[in-house]
């Protein structure tokens, strides 16, 4: 059994990705629905049984996250899946004008603010999980590719060699792998259009690539 931690800031789509692993037609989770406590689910992939531990991403749940991380480390962690979304964090918000400008475009300051939140969140757990003695592998999953697909190179560079990568600290020892992903095709806050070149076929390609990388991480070449 492979015990895997799922980490990431609130609104990046952690629970959505977890659901999309076994449901090809997964519908978007309502923005007001948040994971408040660690959620453990098991999934058989080929010959291997995975136990995914999805941790709440809200900043005020730091104590719950750290406790869950330490408990999992005591039992043994196979690897870490970290969910990011290039600032496209979707959660319950009071004023939609904080997200969109007068033209209906997503505000750049909103995206930049949430990219900074993703980076700041690393300092909480990288020292706890960095190094081969705790986990064997680290996959950085860049979710919501349907929203940033036209900027894919810029987005992936940010996580693979930009300021985000610089902040990984001790986790760099796990040789992080970054993969694009799309749990479900969904307008941002039901307003912003998806990338015009992204479709369900592209979503499935990214999903299949994620599974390929996951199986390679545990030493399997393919699903049997």
Topology:
Blueprint: E1 2-7, H1 14-20, E2 39-45, E3 48-54, H2 62-75, E4 79-84, H3 108-129, E5 137-142, H4 145-148, H5 152-160, H6 163-166, E6 177-180, H7 200-217
Helix pairs in contact: 2-3
Write up what this structure looks like:
- This protein has helices at 14-20, 62-75, 108-129, 145-148, 152-160, 163-166, 200-217, and strands at 2-7, 39-45, 48-54, 79-84, 137-142, 177-180.
- 35% of the residues lie in helices and 16% in strands.
- It has a 6-stranded mixed sheet with strand order 2-3-1-4-5-6, sandwiched between helices.
- The mean pLDDT is 87.
- The protein has 224 residues and is of the alpha/beta class.
- It has 7 helices and 6 strands.
- Helix 2 (62-75) runs parallel beside helix 3.
- Helix 3 (108-129) links the parallel strand 4 and strand 5.
Q: Per the principal axes of the C-alpha atoms, what is the gross shape?
A: globular
Instruction: List the uncertain runs.
Output: none
Order of strands across the widest beta sheet?
Answer: 2-3-1-4-5-6
Strand content: 15-25%
Average pLDDT figure: 87
| N→C terminal distance | 16 Å
Spatial extent as radius of gyration: 17 Å
Q: What class, by secondary structure content? A: alpha/beta
Overall number of strands: 6
**Total helical elements:** 7
Helix content bin: 25-40%
The largest pleated sheet is described as: 6 strands, mixed
Order of helices and strands: EHEEHEHEHHHEH
From the structure above, extract its key features.
alpha/beta; globular; 6-stranded mixed sheet; 224 residues; 6 strands
